[in-house]
Structure formats: structure tokens, C-alpha cells
Design goal:
Largest sheet: 24 strands, parallel
Helix content: under 10%
Strand content: 15-25%
Oligomer: single chain
Shape: flat
Distance between the termini: 26 Å
Number of strands: 39
Number of helices: 9
């Protein structure tokens, strides 16, 4: 049937862990893609596909070995093993003369192809990673790889084992012999253990190189001369532990005819544990290097003291992180838009002399002794629109005078002493996030008239939101949240005048007793209401909730749940979802007639669902019941006729009832029974329940040997999932034919299932998934 197949693609089918041996019979296959699947091994028969040109195994993280006879795939052009755990290459790989793409070559000391096999693959191009290079002991073997002749390879990774000790002296000759062709565009050298890099790294003959990454070469004490590479745009140097200085050799050797790092746009130094000084380029440090550098990152350089370049005319973003000894002034840059100073010496921010007129985003973090911010950010001409202040525990106030009129976003976190001056103009702010600001006891909302997003989190002493009189203007707020504020007790008297508010959440406010007044009038746009762990909230405000509400989440508010009959849910005609969690014993009715979705969870004492209460939910489509350990019975006369999905889990007593009542008809109208507790197969009259489309039958019943029987399930099913039946051996062919509209069939975790219907499955079936 498949003998003329040219293309087979099973990409991202994660449940596939092997291919059948019969794949070797499909001689016409040219393209096989099984990337990002669960494949553990390839059948040896795949080596019989003499016409195969592309084999994509990328992302197969469980694949550890390739078939031994891969060399027989004489027409193979592309082999992608990126993201696999392959530890050796098959023998005689060099016989694949047509091979153009080989993403990874792993050297193995005991088995597989040696590095010399690469020299026979004369058509290689694109990206190549050579791993486990510590195994190569001879520079002759390295020369046999002939990398210098591979002019179409654009990206090269040379990697040693990170767990190895200092490599021997002859390894320098090995890396010398791995010199690539000068057409190379990108190179990464990872875990190299030598003390010096080879001369070819940084040689100006590599005029096409745009990206270099030197990663965890911990024994190297000096950097290669990289400044003379005319096309280099991206440079990352990470983990050179022995490097103490960055000096003249870094820029160029001898006289440079062009500006050093003349094309570089991105530069990162990270984890340079012994780096002390960055020496400038030239005597005056006034140009000549980095003319087009846009982003500079200096990260985790704990001993660095001085030497940041001063003249960086194109710098847009500067990040200095975890450099506690650095005292040098940041560069003088007029184009700088974003500055991050994180866990650094306080002198660095005190000496901040950068013209801040063009600054758009400033992040200051981890200056624990800092009491005030630099005055430059209050410049009226400033373009600052995003200010983030984190973990400055001694900071007492924002800058004196005024905030920039352009400021849109203000984030303040763990600044326990910080106060918000009443006299500052906050009228430009649109986003405000206050976290761990313990000095804050009340918050005057009317000082922030344009806020559309405001969040209070872990402000332990915050007691109230207020509105200073007189106040005649509505708030612009769209989203408001108050989380983990244990002292919070009140909203503004008379309610929140926020006609545009759409999302409102309050959680872990243990002292709060009531929600804002007049919510039904003052919050006409509210759609999402989330209240969690507010145990003292007794009821919703007088007048009820806004009719615009779509979703209500209530968790851990037992007093509020007790008063649910007064919630006025019947008036909420837009309400689509109600989620209710708590410990109340008497949850047995939900007074709403239009609710389509209902979650009930974590009611530790809930014993039953009242049939009358649920029958009132005439529009209920989906019902979820989670973690109700004492729930042991469902309504005898059934659930609402409109119900199409029921999901139940972690209700152990209910499981026992189902085991005893196998075949009872209380779950006739269900379209889904997805539960870790279900133990039997439901009886459902197919004619009576013709609207059912989806069903999942899951459980641990020892009685089910075959499934499904024709009379049990509705013929209207388009999707059926069967899972968790340990003794089910086969599918009943008559039962399967019963589902003439079935489009999707999934069978999971049925370990004794050994046969499918012998003749054929349904013509309507388009998806079949079988797992475990």
C-alpha cells in the first residue's frame, strides 16, 4: 500500500518511540522526518532505503545511537541529529559521499567513526558541531578532518567534554589543526582547556565571521585578538576564569588599519571570575574602538574594578550585573536608551554621569545602602518611560522635585523604606507595580488618574486604598490586583469609580471584610473577578455584582460561600464561568439559570450535590468537580440535560459508588467522563442522547475485557478516548462500527490490548492515537 511513498513526516508525534522494521521495504522513500518524537532507536532496516536523501532526527532526545550500516544510505544528503543524545557516529560514515548536512559529529574513544571520516565528506555545508574533542590526541588526526577545505561550512562548534581535566600540551596543536576555511561566518569554542587560543582565532583573514562565542574555556589566561575581524557583530565571552585583564591584545596585534571592532554590535562578558581591569583602546580612550556597539553586558565579574570604555557613541543598552567592586563611571553615551545596574557597588550609581535625556528604561536593583536616586532622572527633558527599582531597602523616597512627565511604568519591589511623596506629579503613570513596600499604609488613588494597570503585592502594612477629597474624576484603571497584603482592610468610601475596570483580583488579604461598595454601578465594565483566601469577606456589596461579569473565581472564602444565595447570580446574564473552592459542608445548590461552566473544587466536607439545585442550571454545558474527598453521590435523577462535559477527579468515595452502581443511568447525558476515579463503563442510551459528541472513559476497572459494546454509548460521538483499563484485550468491531460519525479515537494505558478490528476501522476516522 505504501510502496510508492516518497515522503514520511511524523514530526512532533511525541508518542512514537520506534519505527517498524517494515519501513525498509519502502524503497521509494526520499524524505523521512521524525523530529521531536519519542524515538529511542532506528530499525536496522532503515539502512536499506537506498533512495533516502533527507533524514531529520532533530529533537529526538531519547535517541542515543544510529544504525551500524548507515554508510549504505549512499544517496543521503541531509542528516540532522541536533538535540539527540547520540554518543558516537556509525562506522565508515565517510562513505556517504553525497552528504551535505551533518549537524553533529560525536567522537567516541572506543567505537564509531574517527574524526578523520569528516575529511571524506567533501560536500559538507551549513552547520557542523564536533563534540568530545578531548579524545583526539594527534594533530594529524585533526588535520585529516580537512576543515580548512570545507568552504561551505558557515557555522562551526568545537566542543570538549566539560568534565575533563586540563588537557595535554598537544591539544594546542590539535586545535591549531582544526583551523576552518576562511569563509566561516560563526564559531563557538566550548570547554577548551588550553591556556591560549590558536592564532587563527581572530585572524583578519576570517573576514566573513559575524559571530564568536568562547564558552567556559576556564584555563585561558588571555583573550585572542578579535578586534581586527571586520565583519564581527556578535561576541560573547563566558567563563574565562584565568583571565585577569582585557588589554591591547584584545583589540588588535600590531598596527590596525581599521577601527578595532569596527562592526561589533553586541558584546557580552560573563562569569569572568578573576577579571580585574579592562584596559582602554588607545591613550585617550576617545574613540577608535566599538564605534557601532549597541548592547554591552558585563555580568558576574566579581573582581572587576575599573576600565569600562568611555566613548561608545552608538550604545543603546548597557547591563552591569553582579560586579560589586566596579567603581568606574558608566560610558558617556548620548544614544543610551536602556540601563540596568544590578547588584553593583553603590559608587557606580552615585557617579552616574550619563546624559539621561534619551534614556527610556532604567533598572536599579540590589543597592541596599542607596538612599536616593540620581537627580538626572528628574530632568524635565528626560524621555524616561520605564523605571524599575528592586531590592533597595534603604531607599526612602523618589527623587525630589518631580518625576519625568514621560514616565509611563513604575515598578518598585522590596524597597521597605520607600514612601511615595504626595507632592509629586504622577499623572503620566499608566502602570504601577508595588511589591514588598512595607512603609506604605494607604494609597491615594486619585493622585494616579491615568493608571490602567495597578498591582499591590506583599505590602505588609498596606491598610487601605483612599480617594482624597475633593474627587470628581473617574479612574482610568483597567486591571487592579491586591495580593498577600495581610493588613489590608478597606477600599475608598463610596466605592471605586473605575468605569473601565475589566479585571479585579484580591487574594490572601486575611483582614479584608468587604469588597468595594456599589460595584454594580461603579464598575460597569468588570468582566473577571478573582477572590482567594479572604476568609473574613462575608458577602458581596449591597446591590450585587456588575452584570458585565463573565468569570467569577472564589477560593478559600468560606464565609462568602455561605452567603451564596444572596449573590444575585440570576442577574448576571453574561456570566460564563463560576469556579468555587472551599471547606463549606452545605454546598448543594447554585442559584443561576444561564451559567454554562461550573468548577467545584476543594470542598473537603461536600457530601452530595442537590439535584434540584443543579437542575436549575438549564444552560450548564460543562461541570468540573475536583478534590472533594467526602463526595459520595450524584443526583439520582440525572444532571441537567444540557450538560455535555463532566470531569471528576480525586473524589475517592464517589469512585466506590460507581463501582457498586455500574450501569446505572445517572450519567446518561454525559459527553465526557474524565476521571482518575471512574471504575466502570457507563450505560447510555444512544437514541436518547444524540447530542453527545465527546467522551473519555477512564478508570481502573478489572472487569472490562472488551470495549465498546454497541448499546452502551451514543452514536453521535465524534471523539472517543479510552484509557486505564488494565485487562482490556480487544476492541469490539461491532461496537466500533456503531460510531458512524467518529473522527478521533484515542486508546491510552491499556497494556493487554493486543488486537484491533481485523477488517477495517471506520471510514470517518481521521485520527488514531495509541499509547502505552
Amino acid at each position: 500500500m505504501l510502496r510508492y511513498l516518497w515522503v514520511l513526516s511524523l514530526s512532533y508525534y511525541v508518542n512514537i518511540n520506534e519505527l517498524p522494521d517494515s519501513i525498509g521495504k519502502i524503497k521509494t522513500l526520499h524524505y523521512v522526518n521524525i523530529s521531536f518524537t519519542g524515538i529511542r532507536r532506528l530499525p536496522d532496516s532503515i539502512c536499506k532505503l537506498c533512495n533516502l536523501q533527507t533524514l531529520n532526527l532533530s529533537g529526538c532526545k531519547d535517541l542515543v545511537v544510529l544504525p551500524r550500516d548507515m554508510w549504505k544510505l549512499i544517496n543521503l544528503r541531509h542528516l540532522d541529529i541536533t538535540g539527540t543524545r547520540i554518543m558516537e557516529m556509525p562506522m565508515q560514515l565517510g562513505r556517504l559521499k553525497c552528504l551535505q548536512t551533518l549537524t553533529k559529529f560525536v567522537i567516541n574513544k572506543y567505537n564509531g567513526s574517527s574524526i578523520g571520516e569528516l575529511g571524506k565528506l567533501i560536500n559538507l555545508r551549513g552547520t557542523l558541531s564536533i563534540l568530545e574533542l578531548q579524545i583526539v590526541k594527534s594533530h594529524v588526526d585533526a588535520l585529516n578532518a580537512c576543515l580548512k577545505d570545507r568552504k561551505y561550512i558557515e557555522e562551526l562548534v568545537l566542543e570538549w567534554n566539560p568534565n575533563g581535566i586540563n588537557i595535554s600540551d598537544d591539544q594546542r596543536t590539535v586545535i591549531d589543526s582544526l583551523k576552518p576555511h576562511t569563509n566561516l561566518k560563526s564559531i563557538s569554542i566550548n570547554y577548551y582547556g588550553g591556556q591560549n587560543f590558536p592564532d587563527w582565532v581572530g585572524h583578519n583573514s576570517f573576514s566573513n565571521i559575524t559571530s564568536i562565542r568562547l564558552y567556559m574555556c576556564n584555563n585561558c589566561c588571555r583573550l585572542p585578538s578579535l578586534g581586527q575581524l571586520p565583519s564581527l557583530r556578535d561576541l560573547s565571552i563566558i567563563g574565562l576564569d584565568e583571565g585577569v585583564t582585557v588589554g591591547p591584545e584584545f583589540y588588535c596585534i600590531g598596527s590596525c588599519s581599521t577601527k578595532s571592532f569596527g562592526a561589533l554590535e553586541f558584546l557580552r562578558f560573563e562569569n569572568m571570575l578573576n577579571w580585574v581591569i579592562w584596559f582602554p583602546f588607545g591613550v585617550e580612550n576617545e574613540g577608535g574602538a566599538f564605534p557601532y556597539l549597541k548592547e554591552l553586558y558585563v555580568d558576574k565579574c566579581p573582581k572587576m574594578v575599573e576600565g569600562l570604555p568611555i566613548h561608545l557613541p552608538s550604545l543603546v543598552k548597557l547591563v552591569i550585573h553582579d560586579c560589586p567592586q566596579l567603581r568606574a563611571s558608566p560610558p558617556k553615551v548620548s544614544a543610551l536608551c536602556e540601563l540596568e545596574l544590578i547588584d553593583c557597588n553603590e559608587a557606580l550609581i552615585r557617579e552616574l554621569s550619563i546624559p539621561l535625556n534619551g534614556m527610556q528604561k532604567l533598572t536599579v536593583e540590589g543597592f541596599f545602602a542607596l538612599k536616593s536616586l540620581p537627580e538626572g532622572i528628574t530632568n524635565f527633558d528626560s524621555c524616561l518611560h520605564d523605571l524599575r527599582i528592586w531590592c533597595c531597602s534603604s531607599l526612602m523616597s523618589l527623587p525630589e522635585g518631580y518625576l519625568p512627565p514621560t514616565l509611563k511604568t513604575l515598578w518598585i519591589s522590596h524597597c521597605k523604606s520607600l514612601e511615595l511623596p504626595m507632592h509629586l506629579d504622577y499623572s503620566s503613570l499608566e502602570k504601577l507595580w508595588l511589591h514588598g513596600c512595607d512603609s506604605l499604609s494607604s494609597f491615594p488613588l486619585n493622585l494616579f488618574p491615568k493608571l490602567y494597570n495597578i498591582t499591590f503585592w506583599e505590602c505588609n502594612n498596606l491598610e487601605s486604598l483612599t480617594v482624597l477629597e475633593p474627587h470628581d474624576h473617574d479612574l482610568m484603571t483597567l486591571r487592579m490586583g491586591i495580593s498577600d497584603c495581610p493588613s489590608f482592610v478597606s477600599f475608598p468610601k463610596g466605592g471605586l469609580r473605575a468605569p473601565n475596570l475589566t479585571s479585579f483580583w484580591v487574594d490572601n488579604c486575611k483582614s479584608l471584610r468587604s469588597l468595594p461598595d456599589k460595584m454594580h454601578e461603579l464598575l460597569p465594565s468588570l468582566q473577571y473577578l478573582y477572590i482567594e483566601n479572604c476568609p473574613e469577606v462575608v458577602s458581596f456589596p449591597e446591590g450585587g455584582l456588575p452584570s458585565s461579569l463573565i468569570s467569577i473565581y472564589i477560593r478559600g472564602c468560606d464565609k462568602l460561600v455561605t452567603s451564596r444565595m444572596g449573590w444575585g447570580l440570576k442577574k448576571l446574564h453574561s456570566l460564563r464561568l463560576l469556579e468555587n473552592s472551599g471547606k463549606s459542608e452545605d454546598v448543594d445548590s447554585f442559584p443561576a439559570t444561564t451559567l454554562p461552566y461550573l468548577y467545584i473544587s476543594k470542598f473537603q466536607n461536600l457530601r452530595s450535590l442537590d439535584k434540584k439545585g443543579l437542575q436549575h442550571l438549564t444552560s450548564l454545558k460543562q461541570l468540573w468537580i475536583y478534590d472533594c474527598p467526602k463526595l459520595k453521590c450524584m443526583p439520582e435523577d440525572g444532571l441537567p440535560a444540557s450538560l455535555s462535559i463532566l470531569e471528576v477527579s480525586d473524589c475517592p468515595l464517589l469512585k466506590k459508588q460507581w463501582q457498586k452502581r455500574k450501569g446505572k443511568e445517572w450519567w446518561l447525558p454525559l459527553a465526557l467522563v474524565a476521571t482518575s476515579s471512574a471504575a466502570g463503563v457507563p450505560a447510555a442510551g444512544s437514541k436518547k442522547h444524540s447530542s453527545v459528541r465527546t467522551m473519555i472513559i477512564a478508570g481502573e476497572s478489572e472487569d472490562v475485557k472488551s470495549f465498546p459494546e454497541a448499546e452502551l454509548l451514543p452514536i453521535s460521538l465524534t471523539s472517543l478516548r479510552i484509557c486505564g483499563f488494565p485487562k482490556m484485550k480487544y476492541l469490539d468491531k461491532k461496537g466500533i462500527r456503531h460510531f458512524t460519525s467518529l473522527e478521533e479515537l484515542q486508546i491510552h494505558d491499556c497494556p493487554k490490548l493486543k488486537c484491533m478490528p481485523e477488517d477495517r476501522l471506520l471510514a470517518s476516522l481521521s485520527i488514531l492515537k495509541i499509547k502505552n
